[in-house]
Amino acid sequence: MYMFKYVTKRLGLMLFTFVIIFTMCFVLIKLLPIPTNALPGQDPIVVMKTLEGRGWITNIQEGTNGVWTYDRVPILIQYGNYIKRIVTEGDFGIATTYGEYLNMDLWEVFTDHLPPTILINIYSTLIGVPIGLGLGILAALKKNKWQDQVINVFIILLISVPSIVLALMLQYVFCFKLGWFPLSMLTSDQYFSWPVFHSMLPAVFALCLGSIAGYARYTRAELSEVLTGEFMLLARTKGLTKRQAIFRHAMRNSMVVIFPSILSEFVGVLSGSLIIEQMFGINGVGGLYLGAITAKDYDFFMLLSGFYTLVGLTAGIVIDISYGFIDPRIRMGAK
Fold first, then answer.
1. Quick one: pLDDT at residue 20?
2. HSE of 330 in the Cβ direction (CA atoms, 13 Å)?
3. Is the CATH code 3.30.300.30 the one for domain 107-326?
4. Stretch 123-143: mean pLDDT, rounded?
5. How far is Cα 306 from Cα 42, in angstroms, rounded to an integer?
6. CA distance 296 to 86
7. The dihedral formed by the CA atoms of 252, 267, 149 and 255, expressed in degrees to the nearest 10
8. pLDDT of residue 323
């Protein structure tokens, strides 16, 4: 009952926070100049009428000197029309200035670009979690020994070097010099075929290296503290071997902190993939987001900003709820 009330309350707060952030993004982006310049091959009249149809401008007139004039629709009215279209029609808008996707439905473009982004993040998590946990466990069990020192040096290097630099090193060594991987991902929708998966691996490795360091650091710190607890001594005196005490008690208690960190790292990787996707030619949401900002396509920006905001807020709830499932002693929302 406590958990149900807690989840309901958190969902309400999440929705409230999302509305505030979404509204702020809309108002701020609408304060910028409206891009009314026609792209090569476009009719200026069509451009202006498209903006009028989307509810951005009104009272369009062509001056005697060929300069178009218009009145900007009040921002709150624009916002009301925008939300109404999304709720009643599922219409997130069309691309008005993003030349490559001009006049295409934004939701269809978004869903077409979403699978590569999700896959490279899932692959990086599947690779990074076992390696990171393994290194952290080994470092904790061999604390202050040479194995621990080597792992600590490795962790510090991965944390200190920016992910962009690591990505450039991977490209130079494994893609350019050794030729083991292509420099960019293959342009194909056969995401589960070996050639496409093989072309994704450089981006996956670039994303998971930083996560490996994070997992290893969290695991070593938490497991080292748990191993020195009095309950571990009690478990040994009851006849459990060292291995049994570690896996039955120490690992379970340390996972209360480690597992939520895995979820938070996944969200961090999802956010960090914006630049990595651009570097490795991943045709995902990250490159689409940067391209929409460059092209000043405001509806595109709103859709993708809402997506990343929702991912971050949802992850916060999942992380909090996970505590109650990992450790039954924790009751979220109880007094």
1. 92
2. 13
3. no
4. 83
5. 29
6. 21
7. 0
8. 65
